């Protein structure tokens, strides 16, 4: 059993994130590749590992946990034809002129051949930069559409971003800075379409890499003895809700991302309904490797049988810091510059929020509380469109539903370990409420009304506890209520009686 410590990395950039922070928090000595080595795996990595893992700090210390590695390094990571890489801790090498996704793929094939030559099981990661935007250092960081290989330049010539309801809408919804965005003009729309075509072309190199990886495994006879996990670390919005290309929001475009798993015991072509997040990946991989970890996640159900028994219905979404528009037209205002990142002079600072997605038989919703204290609610059922005043679940009205969502978010914003997987248990220790629908029972109405609510006193760029409002929820004590005594709820910190 491996115990993951509570780690405070709440941004992808300094001072709240990035490689130096990863090192300071001890993560470099206590994360997935190291746990896998601990149970006999050989581990390999090609591509991007962390932000701010750079030509300056790549060896102080060297990234832990890999038997062999070839890492892309900042400040060149997102330059498609100007990569700098460090192989197994060696001095950074320039690959000027080479196409980065093809380059990191070649290195991954080399590691795969190496791994297949040993008797031990192996864990290999390839993290190509496609379809990230191209970011060059030219004074400050300058961002533009991704570059693609010449051989893919003829593809997707006619492609357009789907013109759905959320595409550059006439009437803008949302809260905080999103609500203020002006409608995009035809120049920006044309740029966005071409930007999206460039993303699709850049992903053709990734597709070819998947194909070749599978072929190498097939030729070695190991394909059916290997799990292949294909995913991404974020989604993307581009012209939806009038936004410049980017990814720091809670919208479906940003958070609803693909996860494809192939391997022994997994049905081909099956589309899972399980509600999961990347917090679950480490547990999933450790379980596939025959071990386990104690983390804030739980193994993703990879078989139909386990999927049917899966009870998780929520995903926690949290973001601190800047919304960073990408591309040549992205400009949201003048937030304070973050250390070493001039691109943020175009970013907006009030982009700190907590959100939850909750998905059950009768609901599919998104609820958010922003650092401005504004709240946002979306019904994501396909037949959505009713007003909040008409929204109901199991006959309970919107006014009854929101306090439950507030309480769920209260638990999830500061949960640790399995509490993050089974948050209702913190509110209802007796274990008789395990879902939103259970919590909607009218006998809990008063209980949910007295709960402290998520709020912020300031829009911070990372987790600052003092700016995040109340931390503890009230717990429901079933016995008391059934005996008709004054309803007694318990604060996690002490007792308090409400009548
Ligand atoms: C990979 O690294 C681990 C941890 O240092 C070590 O025990 C193992 O022998 C290495 N494997 C190979 C093939 O060198
Ligand atoms: C369209 O919008 C962009 C971004 O705001 C601006 O730079 C450009 O001048 C506008 N083009 C026209 C034709 O109005
Ligand atoms: C954030 O919101 C506050 C209050 O609404 C506002 O005064 C401030 O200018 C905003 N900051 C940025 C960087 O947008
Ligand atoms: C948000 O609400 C809390 C609680 O009512 C209040 O203390 C805080 O000042 C508010 N924050 C902002 C940014 O208005």
Most strands sheet: 5 strands, mixed
| Largest beta sheet: strand ordering | 5-4-3-2-6
The CATH class label of the largest domain is: Alpha Beta
Rounded to an integer, what's the Rg over CA atoms? 24 Å
* Arithmetic mean pLDDT: 90
CATH topology term of the largest domain: Alkaline Phosphatase, subunit A
Multimeric state of these chains?
single chain
- At CATH level 2, the architecture of the largest domain is 3-Layer(aba) Sandwich
Tally of structural domains: 2
Could you characterize what this model shows?
InterPro entries: Alkaline_phosphatase_core_sf (IPR017850), Sulfatase_N (IPR000917). One of its GO terms (molecular function) is N-acetylglucosamine-6-sulfatase activity. Pfam families: Sulfatase. Belongs to the sulfatase family. This is Sulfatase N-terminal domain-containing protein. With 499 residues, the protein is α+β, with helices and mostly antiparallel strands. It has two domains: 19-310, Alkaline Phosphatase, subunit A (3-Layer(aba) Sandwich), CATH 3.40.720; 353-490, no CATH class. 24% of the residues lie in helices and 17% in strands. The protein is built from 13 helices and 20 strands. It has helices at 19-24, 32-38, 100-116, 176-179, 186-220, 252-255, 281-288, 304-309, 398-413, 424-427, 436-439, 445-449, 478-482; strands at 2-3, 42-47, 68-72, 84-87, 93-94, 122-127, 134-138, 140-144, 228-231, 259-262, 293-294, 314-319, 353-360, 363-370, 375-379, 392-393, 396-397, 474-476, 488-491, 495-497. The protein has a five-stranded mixed β-sheet with strand order 5-4-3-2-6, sandwiched between helices. It has a four-stranded antiparallel β-sheet with strand order 12-13-14-15, with helices on one face. A three-stranded antiparallel β-sheet has the order 18-19-20. A hairpin with a 2-residue loop joins strand 16 and strand 17 (396-397). It is globular, with a radius of gyration of 24 Å. The two termini are 44 Å apart. Residues 1-6, 334-344, 483-488 and 490-499 have low confidence and may be disordered. One 2-acetamido-2-deoxy-beta-D-glucopyranose binds at residues 37, 42, 67, 118. One 2-acetamido-2-deoxy-beta-D-glucopyranose (NAG) binds next to loops.
